[in-house]
Amino acid sequence: MEKTTLRLQTILYYNEKENLEKSLASVARAVEVSRKKGGCIERIDICYGDASAEPIYTDAEIAALNQKYGEFFHLEYMFFGFNSGTSRGQNVMFKTCKAEYLLAMNPDVILCPDFFIEMMKPYRTRENVGMVEARQCPLEHPKTFDPLTGEEPWGAMACVIIPSAVFGKLGGLDEKNFFLYCDDVDFSYRLRLNGYKVIYQPRAFVYHAKRLDEKGGVQPTSAELYYSAEAALLMAYKYSDDARLKRFLQVYATGSEQQKKAAEEFYRRNKNGLLTERLDKDHKIAAFTEWGYSENRY
Q1: What pLDDT digit, counting tens, does each position of 222-281 carry?
Q2: What are phi and psi of 235, to 5 degrees?
Q3: What is the pLDDT of residues 169-225, one digit of tens each?
Q4: What dihedral do alpha carbons 189, 193, 194, 200 form, nearest 10°?
Q5: What's the whole-number average pLDDT of the chain?
Q6: pLDDT of the residue at 215
Q7: Does CATH place domain 6-207 in 3.90.550.10?
Q8: What is the DSSP string of the chain?
Q9: Does the pLDDT of residue 141 top 90, yes or no?
Q10: What angle (nearest 5°) sits at the alpha carbon of residue 13, between those of residues 215 and 78?
Q11: Where do the structural domains in the chain lie, given as residue ranges?
């Protein structure tokens, strides 16, 4: 099989080193398995972008990790010195990316051994693939996908592989509008507007830890509640759904503290001419449901 190059990019934010090394160990193992099975990935580059207030790692610690795992990857460490959010952080790191493929991944994700074997398959067998998404465990994302082709409305960037040329062609993630949430939905929609496919790959398992409440639901932080509310408004505006935007603004007016703040921010942007260009005016791509961005399987 023809070999290729890949760069893993992940954003750190006050992460525990123990959990980060578990992730790195799984990456090394997945590279090793790909190499042994004749996969197209034999060694990768990893870029850590640290958005914490103080550096998580020292130069000596990064050097030690490179010595330990150097057979499988080279680790580069960028300390941003500011809270980048997901979209800006990924864009900053991408400026130095020279690999053919980009793996955007959360720092706490643990890869299955066959990860690279399974994730690269669509790029060998399908045309116009713009993104391949891994299957998250123990909580799989409920959004729908075609069980025969794997095509889906959008891919969650907790763990996706994208051709670097495509990422660059689309101008990366929309950092002006999406700080923490919906940058992946927006990027997926723009991929599809440009004729690319988003593919879900269920055989590529990854473990992605979640905080759960007493009823088994995901437990978001206050910041996550705010940025998800802000992103919902900006997505409705950007993808030309005025009815959805009006409904959200009405709900947010008497909603939670985070929703009220998100509505105020939207009105501020609108007043100052800071809203983005509107896309998908014929409503061919954006698959909004009442509160979500696609139909769900369950």
Answers
A1: 999 999 999 999 999 999 999 999 999 999 999 999 999 999 999 999 999 999 999 999
A2: -65, -45
A3: 999 999 999 999 999 999 999 999 999 999 999 999 999 976 656 666 667 889 999
A4: 40
A5: 95
A6: 64
A7: yes
A8: -----EEEEEEESS--HHHHHHHHHHHHHHHHHHHHTT-S-S-EEEEEEE-SSS-SS-HHHHHHHHHHHTTTEEEEEEE-SS--HHHHHHHHHHTT--SSEEEEE-TT-EE-TTHHHHHTHHHHH-SSEEEEEEEEESS---B---TTT-B-S---TTEEEEEHHHHHHTTSS-TTT-SSSSHHHHHHHHHHHTT-EEEEEEEEEEE----B-TTS-B---HHHHHHHHHHHHHHHHHTT-HHHHHHHHHHHHTS-HHHHHHHHHHHHHHHTT-PPPP--TT-SS----SSSSS-B--
A9: no
A10: 155
A11: 6-207, 222-271
